[in-house]
Specification:
This protein has 426 residues and is an alpha+beta fold. It folds into three domains: 139 residues; 82 residues, no CATH class; 166 residues, no CATH class. The chain contains 16 helices and seven strands. The strands form two sheets. Strands 2, 3, 4, 5 and 6 form a five-stranded antiparallel sheet that branches. A two-stranded parallel ribbon has the order 1-7. Strand 2 and strand 3 form a beta hairpin. The longest helix has 28 residues. It starts with a helix and ends with a helix.
Length: 426
């Protein structure tokens, strides 16, 4: 990862040789991810999803409706982006929808189909180039209005003057009727047969259901016209979500919010503050490693940077009451006396060798308290990583998260409980 490469370059200053300001700025720039590249990846992912669902969304009817749209912007787009699949879609649509209406018993269906397809393209050519009946300028003023409904425009201007094109446009550009239409009709029928009207006759139910459905359709039509007068074909939320205008034009890659790949809680969480016996707990160690592994930290006292070990950074450590290795955040006692510290490494640390085989100057075992989390925060304040989000918590708001050093005077040496470790584990 690019962020990790930048971190390794900064770790080369461990031996006291500080980088110049210009070199530090170069390393910082190299460690940051390019926003343009992130946008390109996001667009590539969106494109792959679209290609996956494209065969299901681009039906024959949708392609024919695209070719028949009277809006000048869509006409220009269809002429600039010609797709051979549109020709196949037109032929399949005419074969399934138009041909059964024009079929003559004695005529060859293949010949009739060829004539209908040829007629469609001839009439559409006049439609696109504004020739013949479509040469009147007044009809195109109406077509350029964003509130114009396509199938209503074709019903007024192209259906009376064409043989195939106008009918295809009215059928494909109109509202889609599927099983939802049948369900709405059934809903209108059930609304009539309620309570004491359950034994209502079929004819009366049919008539009242038709009246009820017609009223609901008229009500929806009124709402749609009100929305159209407001300049909305569907709804503002639909286009604002996709960052598109009323002609589905726009760049979806603009203002993309890229979520971080990792979230780090820079405080001691409740599940972390726990002790174990000498055998430890593998599940807890895995959780600790998953939270801290691979993160960078900045040691302000020694002016050096490091990184927590990538794998198994949780180290089972014994609580010590006195001496230079005295434990500051945990109290020994209760027959436990072991907790997990986080292994931080510096430049030159070999992850393959055991800790006993390496110099103590190449690593540190960190207890988790506020100073520990401040080192992580300081590192990413100095070297930001767009893939990491840090959740901070003030020390004044501490409710157990962000362990402070333990109080002295009441600790018991963990050595007293070593003989009881095996009994406690059992």
């Amino acid at each position: 990862m690019e962020g990790e490469d930048g971190e390794e370059q900064e770790e080369e200053s461990v031996d006291g040789e500080d980088l110049d300001d210009d070199e530090e700025e170069d390393c910082e720039v190299e460690g940051e991810s390019d926003p343009v590249e992130l946008q390109a990846k996001t667009v590539a992912n969106a494109t792959s999803i679209w290609e996956h669902y494209k065969p299901r969304l681009l039906t024959n009817g949708a392609r024919v409706a695209y070719l028949c749209s009277p809006h000048p912007t869509i006409i220009a787009h269809s002429e600039a982006h010609k797709d051979p699949m549109n020709n196949i879609a037109v032929e399949e649509f005419i074969k399934r929808v138009i041909l059964p209406r024009r079929q003559i018993d004695d005529a060859d269906p293949n010949v009739v189909l060829a004539q209908l397809v040829d007629k469609f393209w001839a009439e559409r050519d006049d439609f696109v180039k504004k020739r013949g009946f479509f040469s009147r300028e007044s009809i195109w003023i109406t077509a350029s209005d964003p509130t114009t409904v396509s199938y209503e425009w074709h019903k007024r201007y192209s259906l009376p003057a064409t043989e195939v094109f106008g009918l295809s446009a009215c059928l494909t550009c109109s509202l889609v009727l599927g099983c939802g239409q049948a369900e709405r009709q059934w809903k209108a029928m059930k609304a009539q047969k309620t309570g004491k009207r359950t034994n209502l006759g079929s004819e009366k139910t049919k008539k009242q259901s038709v009246i009820c459905a017609a009223f609901a359709r008229q009500k929806n039509e009124t709402q749609r016209k009100q929305a159209q007068r407001a300049g909305v074909l569907w709804s503002d939320e639909d286009f604002q979500y996709c960052k598109l205008d009323e002609y589905c034009q726009g760049d979806i890659s603009e203002d993309i919010v890229i979520e971080p790949k990792r979230v780090f809680h820079a405080y001691l969480e409740d599940w972390e503050d726990v002790q174990f016996n000498s055998k430890g707990n593998d599940v807890h160690a895995a959780r600790v490693s998953a939270k801290y592994e691979g993160l960078g930290f900045y040691d302000e006292d020694h002016d050096r940077t490091g990184k927590f070990r990538e794998i198994d950074c949780a180290v089972l450590t014994k609580c010590v009451r006195t001496g230079p290795l005295k434990t500051t955040t945990q109290k020994a006692g209760n027959g436990l006396g072991y907790f997990y510290t986080v292994l931080g490494t510096y430049q030159g640390f070999d992850p393959v060798l055991k800790l006993e085989c390496q110099s103590e100057l190449l690593y540190d075992k960190f207890e988790r308290y506020w100073d520990f989390f401040e080192m992580v925060i300081d590192y990413y304040d100095k070297y930001p990583d767009p893939d990491l989000k840090i959740v901070k918590k003030d020390a004044e708001e501490d409710d157990g998260g962000g362990k402070q050093p333990a109080e002295e005077g009441t600790d018991e040496s963990s050595d007293d409980g070593d003989d009881r470790d095996d009994e406690a584990s059992e």
